[in-house]
Amino acid sequence: MPAADGAVGEAEADALFADLGAERALILAVSGGADSTALLYLVVRWRGGRRGGPHLVAVTIDHGLRPEARHEATAVKRLCEKLGVEHRTMRWSEAKPSTGIQEAARLARYRLLNIAARRAKAPCVLTAHTLDDQAETVLFRMARGSGLAGICGMARRVPIGNLAAGFGQAIDAVHSARDGEDFDASERVVVVRPLLDVPKARLIVTLREAGIAYVDDPSNVDPRFARSRLRRLMPALAEEGLTPQCVARLARRVRRSEAAHEAVVDWAARRLGLGADTRRVALNGADWNEFPAEIALRLLGRVIGTIGTEGPVEFGKLETLSEALATALAEGAPRFRRTLAGAMVSLQKNRLVIDQAPARRSRPRQGDVVRKPRPDFPHK
Questions:
Q1: Would you state the torsion angle of the CA atoms of residues 170, 176, 177, 180, taken in this order, to the nearest 10 degrees?
Q2: Among 337, 314, 343, 313, which residue's Cα sits nearest to residue 325?
Q3: Cβ count near 24 (within 10 Å)
Q4: Is the pLDDT of residue 232 over 60?
Q5: C-alpha distances in angstroms, 102 versus 62, 73, 131, 187, 203?
Q6: Spatial distance between the Cα atoms of 57 and 44, rounded to a whole number of angstroms
Q7: What residues contact residue 343 under an 8 Å CB cut-off, 6+ apart?
Q8: Measured between alpha carbons, how far is 98 from 107 in angstroms, rounded to an integer?
């Protein structure tokens, strides 16, 4: 067993990176902070102890938000030269938004990392998310009212396009446009988080024992950002027993429950004959009522996501719609019609019908003739 507060040893690192040995190349996301610098050092040490192995490319993203970032990228480059690792700096050169800067920077970072991976023909991008990051993520999502899927926290492996809605298609299109290559859907890049069960403190000990310097990003403690405020609360929460290990254990248990729920939804979808090419669903309302509320909620979200034309289904709005639908079915309401994410959900003679919502009407201009709706058409 590794020491709870000691450096990460070679045998432990072998286990952390065991599933990556057969890859032809790996992209390492290295900002110069303690976590990513430790990732770089550990992967290089692991790679050096093997006969053959993946080609390593460290990538530093300069978001253009702090003047120090360029110097930090240069420091990472020097460390990579010392360790014998190829290094690239990529810059986020687009205009910066006035609000939501951290989220926009995150999206830009993954877009650039995806481009780097495609250019290097690397199937995996390694990031240095730690046990502490996992705990912060779970608490952050709980504070925002997330469902079980959010409280699962971060997975070890996730397609890079899953990190934001519609993001995968966007970055693939950007890559193809810039590099003049056809996109092969079978070669999607995967983000791997090998340090997800390792506390940050152990990574700092690892670097100190190796004599490797790192930088501290001031944005990590900036009280303007919710994650920074949560980070400041973690020591007090730990004193009450809510340690990062405890929160991460909760995430693992919720992930197990989430997998079970999704398996039941898969079964229900097959039972109802739903597929990826579904364009319209018409079901007996009594059959729908047989499903437990959570399964009905997820199934409704899946159908709306397939049929709708307006992107991802917002969880809070889906809950509201699902509860209203359940009430209408229970009360035998003669009429029910709601739209969400470009799909229309309605009750028609005891049948639940879900199809694409009609196109939104633009507001009439001055002088336009406005026709009144027919009396038999429910108008709101």
A1: 180
A2: 337
A3: 12
A4: yes
A5: 13, 19, 21, 28, 24
A6: 11
A7: 303, 304, 307, 308, 309, 354, 355, 356, 357
A8: 15
List all residues 6 or more positions away from 161 whose beta carbon is below 8 Å from its beta carbon. 167, 168, 169, 171, 172, 188
- 142-150: long-range contacts at Cβ-Cβ below 8 A with a sequence spacing of 24 or more? 143/226, 143/230, 145/316, 146/315, 147/315, 148/254, 148/257, 148/258, 148/261, 149/258
Q: Is the confidence at residue 299, as pLDDT, over 80?
A: yes
Does residue 165 surpass a pLDDT of 70? Answer: no
For residues 287 and 374, which has the higher predicted lDDT (pLDDT)? 287
Instruction: Count the neighbouring beta carbons within 10 Å of the beta carbon of residue 306.
Output: 17
Alpha helix segments (H runs only) across the chain:
10-16, 34-48, 68-83, 101-120, 131-143, 148-151, 167-179, 200-210, 226-239, 244-271, 285-289, 293-307, 315-331
User: 169 and 236 in contact (C-beta within 8 Å)?
Assistant: no
Give the CA distances from residue 128 to residues 124, 194, 276, 303, 356, in Å, rounded to whole numbers and listed in that order.
13, 7, 35, 35, 42
pLDDT of residue 161: 83
> How would you class 296 by CB atoms within 10 Å of its CB: exposed for 0-12, middle for 13-18, buried for 19 or more?
buried
All domains of the chain in start order, with CATH: 10-251 (3.40.50.620), 273-380 (3.30.465)
- Closest listed residue to residue 47, CA positions, set 55, 39, 36: 55
pLDDT at 374: 39
Among 93-107, 175-189, 279-293, the range scoring the smallest mean pLDDT is 175-189
Unique residue bearing structure tokens 């950007």: 174
Q: Is residue 26's pLDDT more than 50?
A: yes
The DSSP code sequence of 237-284 is: HHHTT--HHHHHHHHHHHHHHHHHHHHHHHHHHHHTT--TT--EEEEE
Give residue 316's identity as a one-letter amino acid code: G
Q: What is the pLDDT of residue 176?
A: 37
Q: Which of 195, 196, 218 is nearest to 38 (CA)?
A: 195
- Gap between the Cα atoms of 10 and 345, Å rounded: 56
Beta carbons within 8 Å of 234's beta carbon, 6+ residues apart: 132, 135, 136, 244
CB–CB of 23/54 below 8 Å? Answer: yes
* HSE toward the beta carbon, residue 18, CA cutoff 13 A: 6
